Amino acid sequence: MKQDMRGLTSAILSISLLTVMAGAAMAPALGAIKEHFSQCTPMTVQLIVSLPALFIILTTFAFRPLCRLMRTRTLALAGLTLYVVAGAGAFFVDDIALLLVLRALLGVSVGMIMPLSTGLLSFYFPPAEQSRLMGLSAAMNQMGGVVATLLAGVLAAVEWHYAFLVYLAGLLAIVLVAAKLPNEWLASTGSRLELKTLVRFHPSVTAMLLIMLLFFVYPTNFALTAHGQGVPMLTTTLIMVGLDVVAFVVGLLFGWLMHHLRRQMKYVAPLFFLAGYAVLAFVPGLAGMIVGSALVGMANGAGVPYVNTIASIKGGKDAAITVMPLISAALYLGQFLSPLIVEPLSRALAVENAPYLVAMCIAVLFLVQVFLTRRHHALPPA
Q1: Does domain 194-376 have CATH number 3.90.550.10?
Q2: Nearest to 325 by CA among 205, 192, 173, 145
Q3: pLDDT, tens digit, for every residue of 248-262?
Q4: Which fold has domain 1-185?
């Protein structure tokens, strides 16, 4: 029985390893892709990274009907197969329109599997185990981002088409899911998603949106800040990868942290985001960049599994078809909206390190939201 549960855990976590690779993993290849499609506008090329997020959001709202049509393993395998075909299929494409179609389909595939990567943990495991498993899920997500981004950069140096081969990692998840994930219905087909149910989960959905709004200030601005201070590109890359490593370690430790600091954990993400961006804004030099990046990594590494844990426990066994699709939509909506919100506000401030100052204001808003909506702890006794 313990062996079966380990296999089940491995299958679910293998999905978590893949979801973050949808868009950001292709960032290192964009320069070469832009050069190849020189007749296209820069915005068209940038859609290669941003378009999947839009289709992930749209697909998560169709997740519940999909669960009425397919059992868990069938749905996961369908999503993973589309993930591999649409992701790695771009290796064979030399037309920008077809390439964007494949990127949209990749977003659809992630929208199918993203709610499963966290929702299945609440479906199969008791609340007492979920904080540890949500931490592991977040850690796998961070690891997937680090490995995929580095590997895509190496492959793109050979030729840009090769970068898309990173999506073949989905084959491993297909094998694990086919062998270890039970094929059953997530919930009865008669259950309905009502407005009062959505209202019930608004603190977690809003928190995930704020976390992503905050976190994506970093990747969209840090390289520019570092370049402006004369930091070599390799050093900048290592610092940014170091942030993901910090978030990965925090994810591994998340279960222990929730056990020992249960009531304090709700404040970790907003406070560490506030501290991290304050350091990046006001402490010049390499030391400030390293410390600020580490604090932002800690905030993200603790914030994502905390929200997932609270939401999954509150949603119970139906979390995969109620709150988790909403959490997934909020996560990618935050990524999509972050530059659209932060950039105009930064231009309006017109001061040095304005994006980090805007992030500090959002972090204060996040802290207020946590205080107003997390007064009653949702975790069961340890």
Answers
A1: no
A2: 205
A3: 899 889 888 888 887
A4: Growth Hormone; Chain: A; (1.20.1250)
